Amino acid sequence: MNQKRSLLFLAIAAFSVIAFFTATEGSAQIRRDRNRPAATPKPDSLVVTSADTSNAQKRGDIETTINYKAKDSIRYDAVSQIMHLYGDAHIDYGEIALDAAYIQINWKTNIINAEGVLDTAGVLQQKPLFKNGAETYQAERMAYNYKTKKGRVMGAVTTQGEGYIHAETIKRDSLGSIYGRHARYTTCDLEHPHFYIKATKMKVIPNDRVVAGPFHLVFADVPTPIGLPFGFFPSPRKRGSGVIIPTFGESNMQGFYLREGGFYWAMNDYMDMRITGDIYSLGGYGLRVQSNYTKRYKFSGNFSVSHTFIKAPENTTRGATTDQIVNYGTGSRDIWVSWSHQPVTRPGQGQFSASVNAGSQFYNQRNSTNAQNALSPNFNSTVSYRKSSPNSPITYGITISQSQTSRTQLNEEGEVVPAQQMSFTLPDFSFGVASQSPIEWFGGTLTGRWIEGIRIGYNLTARQYVTNNISAGTGLGFPFSTRQARDTLLAINGSNLSTIFRNARTSINHDIPITLGTVSLFKHFKLTPGVSYSESWFTKKYTYSNVPGTNMLAVDTLKGLQRTYQYQGSLSLTTNLYGIAQIKGKKVEAIRHTITPNISYSWRPDFGRPEYGFYQRVQRDSLGNTQLLSRFQGLEGNVPGAGLSSAISFSVSNNVEMKVKTDSAGVFKKVSLIDAFNFSGSYNMAADSFKLSNINVNLSTKLFNNVGVTLSGSFDPYQYVNGTRRNIYLINEGGFKLARLMNLNFNTGFEFNQQARKQQAESGAAAPTNLPSLQRTVVTAADYVEFNIPWTLSVDLTSNFTRDLLTDKLMNNATSAGINGSVTLTEKWAVNYTTSYDLKNRILSYTNIGITRDLHCWQMSIDWVPFGALQRYSININAKSALLQDLKIRRSGSATGRAY
Predict the structure, then answer these.
(1) Where is this region: Disordered (predicted)?
(2) By the 8 A CB rule, do 126 and 46 touch?
């Protein structure tokens, strides 16, 4: 009787548990046989009837709610206290998530088992996928104790940062450390990786490091002799400091070298530092300090300082090189400073920004691996602060700028030698008040009346311009036709700073623009009057006198505050004219011609008259000829012009468009035939000769919707006799010669596969032009490839001509053609190329060829400059992952500075 009561009690308990879970699971179907082994997963052919979701809470060892569900069914064994989940099973337990084809939960032992399922082809599907915070494991089978937080995984793949660990067996302890047996470490994300580091034993401390026992490197399942007794691979979640492995190469100037070796210091989350050095076998070294910094919502930037010393070749004599970048006889010491600071724009806040690129004259030619820097003769630097308020018309700012240009000059032996011209603006202060209507000054309300178009503004600029370009004999910088002395460039050092600053040009400029508004005349014309006033203050003024018996001028400098001013008035009239030709053709509907004529009159007094004191007439030679010279010649500022100006200016702009039918019924589109065809000139009625100016003409159009053409030229309406211009119009010679073409500039370019180029630009595949200092390595065409674009091709042609007045012929000054593009040979092979050809001198300019091979987790790139001063090559095979960035093979060479 007691046995029957016990059996009845167990049956009632089992029925109650089943009823409870049936009610909790909603429509879950309990269709599994209780006698079926718990560890056997559901066959692949099982039919899914519904999705199951359930929450179960168990007091005691369970720390939080276990959420579980299964796509097919859930079965609970009340006697063994084991839960079976079949078909896309899923469990959530705090930060832990598990997905598998079959999951078993043992409430007695606190162990969760998971397995995949074989499909009809015998392939294991729905493998267990275990996630614990940022860690991920995928395996054939696995077991996890949610109480002790220990687990065991068979046939596992786990991710650690950018790396993947494959192992026969993985065990996880309660501290989160992972132990792998017969493990493989790789950054390749394939199930069967292309390469890996194979070790008998491996320990992984998540977000910290990977430690391996005896290991060796395996490529394409081929073991290599590269191995060590133990390995240490950092994998921190945050940035970490460490050693930077140098790169190896060779150049004719430096010999064999090791470059960019040193130490990376992650100072904090907002700033880092990279300290590297170079060493050259022919003698010399390089030192470099680079840093990136950022502050969220405030600013970001980078800074670098580089110093190099290259020993002079012992067997190279003066002039025995193909370029001028070798410092003959002595070693070359170069320094370069770069600083970029970008603020985050915030309304009403001051904006401090900096862009500094300065250093030794030939630093980039000797050391730069960037072709753009190596080929550029000019560099500019600017540090500025700007402040404006959205509720105030006042803006102000201060700027410090520097520019340097490579040029040539004569040395003491009369030889042409390279030199560097440097100029500084210390500082450039600006203050401005936006144009306002006087009605606003007195609290009036603007209602749109024409009088409200009268607006007055104010701009002030104060600057000091300093340069090392000193004119010998005069201390000025302006050209005299009678002066035989030449300009010199002083080396900037402590001994000549006083001379350089003594020749500084300081000025304060005031501009008061006055707008008188626009008046409509006869509905179709717009009349715009204007008045302007400007004033400049200088710290010096010059007085000239002829040296008796010579063609030289003596210059006296009067120091102190000197004032100049000028004013002028103008009147402009413009309108638009339209002409439409109705074609009504099959494709062309109509053609519209838009003409915009403009005529204006301006008047300015003759500020060269003696009563103003701005100009001085001096004797220029021993024959008694005189010349009018500005007493502020060469100074920075608004120096008034000499001569009365009463000029009529005219211009005509033309635009031609065509209305074309599209494939859609009743839909038209506009096609531009001529984007712009403009000509302009002026006639000065107050001039004593040559009243009509040159006529400037420019044309811009696009052929076949792809080929852009630009033409610009200047026509002179006067006659020339033996190269001398005469005050006689060319039309007076007879015939139809109205003007003579003096210069012509022509530019055209076309681009095939333009849509592919747009796609590349939108995807950001183009090479960046302004990289942070820590990323300034070899930037070549091979580094930026869009494999989805099959090919691109761009061609441009530029030419300019100038008329020789003696022969009366147009002479070709320069003509060059450039080609650049890319070809994707296969899904993995791509070629980029760029070159230009000087058609006049018949030589090739800078040429670069890049070849890239995508090796999935690796990349191969070849960069080749076949000739020129920057001739070089480099071959790189490297892992893509930043985690193994030092796992690479590099071979490079440079012929810069080679001897004959």
Answers:
(1) 31-53
(2) no
User: Amino acid identity, residue 598?
Assistant: N
DSSP E strand boundaries for 662-694: 668-684
Ranges of each domain in the chain:
1-107, 738-867
Beta carbons of 404 and 379 less than 8 angstroms apart: yes
pTM: 0.67
Bridge partners for 819 per DSSP = 795, 835
User: Closest Cα to residue 345, out of 380, 300, 382, 398?
Assistant: 300
CA distance 421 to 477: 13
Q: Give the whole-angstrom CA distance, residue 103 versus residue 85.
A: 5
Q: What whole-number distance in Å separates Cα of residue 674 and Cα of residue 654?
A: 8
Confirm if 181 and 156 have CB atoms less than 8 A apart: no
Query: Under a CB-based contact definition with an 8 Å cutoff, are residues 534 and 511 in contact?
Result: yes
| Alpha carbon of residue 497 to chain centroid | 36
Question: Which residues make Cβ contacts (< 8 Å) with residue 615, sequence separation at least 6?
Answer: 607, 608, 628, 629, 630, 631, 642
Report in angstroms the alpha-carbon separations of 820 from 169, 784, 792, 797, 817.
53, 14, 8, 12, 10
* Helix (H) or strand (E) run with residue 307 in it: strand 299-310
Query: Which residues, 6 or more positions from 809, have their beta carbon under 8 angstroms from its beta carbon?
Result: 803
Amino acid residing at 152 = R
Among candidates 123, 158, 111, 121, which has minimal Cα distance to 139? 158
- Give the position of tokens 């007439």: 617
Distance from the Cα of residue 659 to its chain's centroid: 39
CA distance 578 to 96: 74
Neighbours of 610 (CB within 10 A): 9
Task: Give dist(CA 825, CA 804) in Å, integer.
Answer: 49
HSE-up (13 A, CA, CB side) for residue 399: 19
More confident residue, 858 or 788: 858
Spatial separation of the C-alpha atoms in residues 143 and 727, rounded to whole Å: 102
Q: From residue 218, how far is each of 197, 236, 715 by CA, in Å? A: 6, 24, 73
Digit-coded pLDDT (tens) for 561-604: 999 999 999 999 999 999 999 888 888 889 999 999 999 999 99
Confidence of residue 771 (pLDDT cuts 50, 70, 90): very low
- Nearest-angstrom CA–CA distance, 715 and 733: 16
User: In whole angstroms, how large is the CA radius of gyration of the chain?
Assistant: 40
From 645, 477, 647, 619, select the one nearest 547 (Cα to Cα).
619
Pairwise pLDDT comparison (36 vs 853), residue with the higher score: 853
DSSP per residue, 45-104: TPPP---EEEEE--SSS--SPEEEEESSEEEEETTTTEEEEEEEEEEEETTEEEEEEEEE
Q: By the 8 A CB rule, do 373 and 380 touch?
A: no
Q: Which residues of 659-688 are buried (b: 16+ CB within 10 A; e: fewer)?
A: beeeeeeeeeeeeeeebebbbbbbebeebe
Strands 255-265 and 273-280, sheet pairing: antiparallel
Q: Residue type for 1, please?
A: M
Contacts of 595 (CB under 8 A, 6+ apart): 576, 577, 578, 579, 652, 653, 654
Give the phi and the psi of residue 22 in degrees, each rounded to 5: -65, -40
Which segment, 306-310, 440-444, 652-656, is predicted with the most confidence on average? Answer: 652-656
